[in-house]
């Protein structure tokens, strides 16, 4: 007879749940805390079969990241894009639809199942190589794709920061009744704890008390743009409807779907740009270009700005506008030389891009992006050979 296998947190709670050692279980089990709202909040302790009743019917890829039964065999082959599907149980067989202690810790040794902590998290928190392919979007959570090319991972931030550096802040050593110091198992980004000089988290040394405001400010920029895009999305959706049945419709629908993809890339990453502010900005710029193209191509509301957009400098005040036009011209000429088919369409496209760059109101930071507006226009992205990131990097001036 097989011994009964228990994958629940109760297994560890016997010892790690007492008054003196209970912090870990309590932190992890946010789902059981009184203020937990299932719709708005996430937690590793949240049972997927309760929170997302349709997930158990959606096959093995859900099992791999949303159940303990699936996560354990999944993490046996922890490469980021490998769900190890052959080894996974069928959804019907799953007993533990949450991410319990034994997902990350081997219960016999308590060691982490995957030594590389970034890989441990990234095996589940990745965007499954989703691409903007014109089809309606499927769910994906690209935290790893954002993070892995960010300043934190590539050595630009003065110290390398991993997922756990930001999401599992250490408590102060002398935290009294809360038990011994340990890494935070709520997995929340906690700027107060991270920059508490009494801890070993180390952020205080450089950021002092400013970490929370630095992060909030960056997030506000991104959420402001997301909000503005929400209005453009509505406009483009209506415009698309009016084009239904026309010859242009299939292409416009693809552009619209791709715009939603780029917006979801930023939304589903979950950090409002903190994982990679540059990359988030690029995705949002691309989405904006696509939505505007859809609206303008149908002639409904061309040139209109969403009403809540604040007044910015006019085109005359935007530095580098002339240069931007020249640049667009050069790119256009290059492109025409390369692509001999349908040149007329792209001449129109270049001129239109130049014009939309001019007439668009620029928000505080956005005037720094005038070159980007051209380079990041999806028409250019679609044929430009160099990885757009490299080009953008050279020209990109990050808003501060
Ligand atoms: C029989 C009691 C007991 C159970 C059950 C138990 N632990 Fe522990 N665990 C301990 C003790 C005691 C320590 C040492 C605490 C210390 O050093 O402060 C410890 C330490 C740990 C550590 C730290 C190891 C280190 O290197 O510092 C981890 C991680 C851990 N346990 C995870 C787990 C997990 C996950 C489970 C459930 C699968 C679990 N434990 C179940 C008693 C238990
Ligand atoms: C999503 C993955 C994950 C889950 C789930 C998880 N842990 Fe951990 N745990 C970690 C990581 C990663 C560390 C090491 C963090 C660090 O210090 O960088 C850790 C550290 C610990 C430590 C402290 C070890 C030390 O050296 O101080 C204990 C104790 C512990 N975990 C117990 C638990 C218990 C009990 C549960 C279930 C309630 C649990 N963990 C659930 C990832 C996880
Ligand atoms: C086996 C898959 C898996 C692994 C491994 C995993 N997560 Fe998660 N994580 C999830 C799922 C699924 C959710 C969403 C739960 C829900 O829907 O409520 C989640 C939610 C989260 C959240 C938001 C909710 C919260 O608890 O604050 C954060 C942050 C997070 N994970 C960070 C991490 C970090 C950091 C690691 C690595 C130490 C990690 N995760 C490892 C599957 C995983
Ligand atoms: C520089 C610090 C930092 C690093 C490094 C980092 N994150 Fe985050 N992460 C954040 C912040 C800040 C948020 C937004 C949290 C908020 O606004 O409450 C966030 C949000 C998230 C969320 C969404 C949480 C939710 O409640 O929706 C997940 C999941 C997540 N991170 C996973 C990861 C993973 C996986 C890694 C590593 C591949 C990682 N993070 C690396 C700072 C970081
Ligand atoms: C050795 C000094 C140093 C340490 C230690 C340090 N940082 Fe930083 N960090 C910086 C500098 C410098 C910047 C750039 C400041 C700016 O852009 O305003 C920065 C920027 C950031 C940003 C914004 C990044 C961006 O460009 O969007 C975040 C978030 C951040 N740090 C988080 C952390 C966290 C969390 C810790 C601790 C785990 C930490 N830092 C530790 C020096 C440090």
How would you characterize the overall build of this protein?
By secondary structure, the protein is mostly helical. Among the domains are: 10-124, no CATH class; 157-207, no CATH class; 313-400, no CATH class. Helices cover 48% and strands 0% of the residues. It contains 20 helices and no strands. The protein is globular. The N and C termini lie far apart (63 Å). Bound molecules: heme C (HEC) (5 copies). Residues 9, 12, 16, 24-25, 28, 44, 99, 101, 103-105, 112, 117, 164, 168, 182-183, 185 line the site of one heme C.
Low-confidence stretches: 302-319, 332-400
Structural class: mainly alpha
Strand element count: 0
What Rg is obtained from the alpha carbons, in whole angstroms?
24 Å
Helix-strand string = HHHHHHHHHHHHHHHHHHHH
The percentage helix is 40-55%
Q: Biggest β-sheet: count, sense, barrel?
A: none
Summed up, the helix count is 20
């Amino acid at each position: 007879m097989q011994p009964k296998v228990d994958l629940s947190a109760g297994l560890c709670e016997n010892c790690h749940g007492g008054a003196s050692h209970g912090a870990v279980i309590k932190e992890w089990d946010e789902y059981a805390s009184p203020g937990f709202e299932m719709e708005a909040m996430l937690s590793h302790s949240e049972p997927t079969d309760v929170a997302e009743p349709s997930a158990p019917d959606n096959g093995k890829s859900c099992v791999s990241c949303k159940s303990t039964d699936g996560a354990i065999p999944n993490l046996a082959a922890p490469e980021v894009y490998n769900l190890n599907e052959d080894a996974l149980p069928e959804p019907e067989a799953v007993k533990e639809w949450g991410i319990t202690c034994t997902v990350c810790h081997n219960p016999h040794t308590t060691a982490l199942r995957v030594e590389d902590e970034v890989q441990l998290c990234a095996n589940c928190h990745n965007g499954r190589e989703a691409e903007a392919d014109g089809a309606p979007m499927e769910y994906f959570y690209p935290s790893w794709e954002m993070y892995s090319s960010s300043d934190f991972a590539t050595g630009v931030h003065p110290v390398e920061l991993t997922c756990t550096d930001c999401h599992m802040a250490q408590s102060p050593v002398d935290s009294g009744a809360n038990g011994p110091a340990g890494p935070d198992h709520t997995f929340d980004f906690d700027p107060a704890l991270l920059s508490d000089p009494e801890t070993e988290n180390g952020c205080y040394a450089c950021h002092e008390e400013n970490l929370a405001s630095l992060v909030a400010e960056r997030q506000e920029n991104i959420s402001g743009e997301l909000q503005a895009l929400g209005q453009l999305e509505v406009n483009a959706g209506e415009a698309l409807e009016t084009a239904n049945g026309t010859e242009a419709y299939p292409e416009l629908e693809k552009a619209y779907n791709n715009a939603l993809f780029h917006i979801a890339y930023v939304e589903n990453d979950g950090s409002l740009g903190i994982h990679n502010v540059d990359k988030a900005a690029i995705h949002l710029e691309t989405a904006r270009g696509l939505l505007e193209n859809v609206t303008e191509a149908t002639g409904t509301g061309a040139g209109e700005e969403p009403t809540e957009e604040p007044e910015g400098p006019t085109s005359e005040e935007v530095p580098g506008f002339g240069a931007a036009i020249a640049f667009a011209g050069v790119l256009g000429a290059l492109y025409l030389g390369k692509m001999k088919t349908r040149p007329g369409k792209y001449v129109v496209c270049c001129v239109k891009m130049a014009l939309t760059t001019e007439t668009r109101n620029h928000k505080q930071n956005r005037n720094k992006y005038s070159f980007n507006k051209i380079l990041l226009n999806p028409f250019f992205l679609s044929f430009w050979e160099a990885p757009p990131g490299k080009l953008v990097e050279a020209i990109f001036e990050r808003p501060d």
